[in-house]
């Protein structure tokens, strides 16, 4: 409660730690200070995670995956996600730590069978698949002979096919959906 008194502006509130009413005389009352994000563009590109229109990081699903990103293995909590009070920040931090622990506690991770794979003989290391991969699964790797080619981490790959459809060399395919298999299906349908 705020009251103007001869001695100044009196604010009365219940301190939830002391669990009793407290009175203070305030010079300035700030009901809510603005919380604005930093420029998260670089971080967003680095981890391939999205930000919303205000510049805060955007979760994979508001209700089903509230501390996850679409990119596996990256979690968030706190003000990175948006303005919230301390209790919510702590609860969200515990949730993010719990989600990370579920992955770290496993000795092995089962991957989806529909992962992309690279034919290194055809790959010209143009890097297009690395650019388009939304899951940060594709990278360019140089072997001990100095040959550079794309490589896919199947644990991160979502099998979306963006790399395969963007590769001009036809060097990268998704298991079960290779270019040859799709063309064979198209031919069967067109007959
Ligand atoms: S887009 Fe194709 S050719 Fe280019 S790096 Fe990826 S797999 Fe290799
Ligand atoms: S199939 Fe999708 S997720 Fe997998 S490497 Fe290609 S672009 Fe990335």
List keywords for this structure.
191 residues, alpha+beta, Alpha-Beta Plaits, 3 domains, binds iron/sulfur cluster, 4Fe4S_Fe_S_CS, 4Fe4S_Fe-S-bd, iron-sulfur
Verbal overview:
This protein has 3 domains: 31 residues; 64 residues, no CATH class; 75 residues, Alpha-Beta Plaits (2-Layer Sandwich). The protein is elongated and about 90 Å long. The protein has 5 helices and 7 strands. With 191 residues, it is of the alpha+beta class. Helix content is 25%, strand content 18%. The chain binds iron/sulfur cluster (2 copies). One iron/sulfur cluster binds next to helix 3. Keywords: 4Fe-4S, Electron transport, Iron, Iron-sulfur, Metal-binding, Repeat, Transport. GO terms for molecular function: 4 iron, 4 sulfur cluster binding; metal ion binding. This is 4Fe-4S ferredoxin-type domain-containing protein.
Count every helix, treating DSSP H or I runs of 4 or more residues as helices.
5
Bound small molecules, deduplicated? iron/sulfur cluster
Rg, alpha carbons: 26 Å
Distance between the termini: 79 Å
- Count of the separate structural domains: 3
Portion in helices: 25-40%
Care to count the β-strands? Answer: 7
The biggest sheet amounts to:
3 strands, antiparallel
For the record, what CATH class of the largest domain applies? Alpha Beta
Protein name: 4Fe-4S ferredoxin-type domain-containing protein
Domain 4Fe-4S ferredoxin-type: 114-143, 148-177
Keywords: 4Fe-4S, Electron transport, Iron, Iron-sulfur, Metal-binding, Repeat, Transport
Pfam families: Fer4_7
Report a brief summary of the structure.
The protein is α+β, with helices and mostly antiparallel strands and 191 residues long. 25% of the residues lie in helices and 18% in strands.
């Amino acid at each position: 409660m705020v009251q103007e008194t001869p001695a100044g502006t009196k604010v009365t509130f219940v301190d939830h730690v002391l669990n009793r009413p407290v009175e203070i005389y305030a010079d300035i009352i700030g009901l809510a200070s603005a919380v604005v994000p930093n420029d998260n563009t670089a971080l967003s590109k680095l981890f391939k995670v999205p930000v919303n229109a205000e510049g805060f990081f955007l979760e994979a699903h508001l209700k089903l995956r509230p501390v996850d990103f679409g990119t596996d293995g990256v979690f968030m909590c706190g003000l990175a996600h948006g303005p919230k009070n301390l209790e919510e920040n702590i609860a969200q931090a515990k949730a993010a730590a719990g989600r990370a622990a579920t992955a770290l506690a496993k000795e092995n991770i089962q991957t989806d069978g529909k992962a992309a794979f690279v034919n290194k003989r055809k790959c010209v290391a143009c890097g297009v698949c690395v650019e388009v991969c939304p899951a940060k699964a594709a990278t360019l790797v140089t072997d001990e002979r100095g040959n550079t080619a794309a490589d896919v981490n199947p644990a991160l790959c979502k099998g979306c096919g963006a790399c395969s459809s963007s590769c001009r060399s036809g060097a990268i395919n998704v298991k079960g959906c290779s270019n040859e298999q799709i063309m064979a299906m198209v031919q069967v349908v067109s007959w």
